[in-house]
Design a protein that fits this description.
Distance between the termini: 57 Å
Largest sheet: 7 strands, antiparallel
Helix content: 25-40%
Radius of gyration: 22 Å
Structural class: alpha+beta
Order of helices and strands: EEEHHEEEEHHHEHHHHHEEEEEE
Oligomer: single chain
Strand content: 15-25%
Number of strands: 14
């Protein structure tokens, strides 16, 4: 049986986006694959959204859109039975995320694929339980997913390997008026015939929950893994315990902030394993930054470049992740200037790593999550003024959220919208991100177990 080796790339295609899943720490940070995983852009078709998919009768509320569709020119590469096996899986997946209730997967996987079934069951259960633990209502009111075939290979044993891209449009109950979007990511299905019908012998979806669940077994044949049920159940429970601990940590931070605790950030940072945390730079000295941060401009840039990369910058998606590079560009668009002075620097003038004060090369702080966190924490004098490990409920549009498991903070996103409840209390954020590319997606639905807020105060 196939191993899900991250070095495997798809067939050559004319237009590509390089997409990796987990760590966005180009250089020495993050845990993303170093090799390229290639995903095509969706085939051209008229723009549609979940709301536009249904034409309501006059004075009649439209039925919610909950379906998938196959698009593109390669549809004849699969039989109807093979398509049915894939869409049975996809529909069940989105039904589970819509209701946040687990679905039976027994009929989806071959009898010989017990390891794969255990892996998927625990991955789904992690996503469902993680979302149910949040303050926000993260059920899906509507979804429309589009899939296109990239490559189909029939193996000598009769199995069929199918590489596919997916774009999804989602309406969460949290904010039903907002369409969250995954512009495109990659699936690899392995299909076999069993009792006259096609079923799954394997599947990998390059999305964070699956990546986190597979940690430690990414190059293994899951059917050769002893006690797969126990292995993945243990991994699921560890991830969920990290979610619970992180929610408690953030709640204690908020209580301390409400009570006026001076060292809230430092204490929270130590608990999260992210560093000393707390007030930094000009803020630590009680000073107000000389220049304001243009939050709206930063978010406008983010929305423009979630999917369409800015060609003026190198794209690190296949080199550890583009998330920090993307966020750094957003800060620059919001007026935060590059910083080449002092001991803490933040710049990008080219791909070559260069930490000196000249206007050449780039610092790791521009492209690596850990190094940017250290820059935001330690910088004083000129450049960015920020507060790391801030009270999580104090975020504003344009602030940053660092994510990851506690042993590996590997992802950075920018807040595009603040979500408040009927009492005006912040309960969630919508975010934009590269690697995985998402636009206006609830931060609490993102599959990383832990989150930490970096407040952008301005610059000097």
């Amino acid at each position: 049986m196939k191993r899900w080796n991250v070095k495997r790339s798809l067939a050559a295609v004319c237009a590509t986006v390089l997409l990796c899943v987990s760590g966005c720490g180009a250089g020495s940070g993050g845990n993303a694959p170093s090799a390229e995983v290639v995903v095509t852009l969706p085939p051209s078709e008229p723009e549609t959204t979940p709301a536009a998919e249904t034409e309501p009768e006059p004075e009649t509320a439209p039925e919610p859109v909950r379906r998938g569709k196959l698009i593109g020119d390669n549809q004849d590469l699969l039989t109807d039975g093979q398509k049915e096996a894939i869409f049975n899986y996809m529909d069940r997946y989105y039904e589970a995320l819509s209701s946040l209730e687990m679905k039976d997967l027994s009929d989806l996987f071959a009898a010989s694929a017990a390891g794969q079934k255990a892996f998927h069951e625990n991955s789904w259960e992690y996503m469902i339980e993680m979302r149910r633990m949040q303050k926000s209502d993260l059920r899906l009111n509507e979804y429309l997913y589009r899939m296109w075939i990239l490559n189909v290979t029939e193996q000598e044993d009769g199995s069929v390997d199918v590489d596919m891209g997916e774009q999804s449009l989602l309406r969460f109950a949290l904010m039903p008026e907002i369409i969250a979007e995954y512009p495109g990511y990659w699936h690899d299905f392995v299909l076999v015939q069993e009792n006259g019908r096609w079923v799954l012998a394997g599947h990998m979806q390059w999305e964070g929950a699956f990546w986190n669940m597979l940690k430690g077994h990414r190059d293994e044949d899951l059917e050769e893994l002893e006690n797969a049920d126990e292995v993945f159940a243990e991994r699921k429970e560890l991830l969920l315990s990290q979610v619970a601990e992180d929610l408690e940590r953030r709640e204690q931070m908020h209580i301390a902030a409400e009570e006026g605790s001076v060292n809230t950030g430092a204490e929270a940072g130590a608990k999260a394993g992210t560093g000393t945390g707390g007030q930094t730079g000009a803020d630590a000295a009680g000073q107000i930054p000389l220049h304001e941060y243009d939050r709206e401009a930063a978010v406008a840039y983010a929305r423009a470049h979630v999917d369409e990369r800015n060609g003026d910058w190198h794209d690190y998606s296949g080199e550890g992740g583009n998330c920090q590079n993307f966020v750094s560009q957003c800060l620059l668009a919001g007026g935060i200037p590059m910083d080449t002075e002092g001991s803490a620097r933040w710049k990008w003038y080219g791909e070559a790593l260069n930490d000196d004060s000249g206007e050449t090369g780039c610092t790791l702080s521009w492209i690596n999550v850990d190094y940017f966190y250290a820059y935001a924490r330690d910088n004083s004098g000129s450049g960015l003024a920020a507060r790391v490990d801030a009270d999580f409920t104090s975020g504003q549009v344009g602030d940053l959220i660092m994510m990851g498991p506690p042993e590996d903070w590997n992802h950075m996103v920018i807040i595009s919208e603040v979500v408040k409840d009927e009492n005006g209390e912040t309960i969630d954020y919508l975010i934009c991100s590269n690697t995985t590319d998402v636009q206006d997606f609830p931060a609490s639905a993102y599959p990383s177990p832990c989150r930490s807020l970096i407040k952008i105060l301005g610059w000097n």
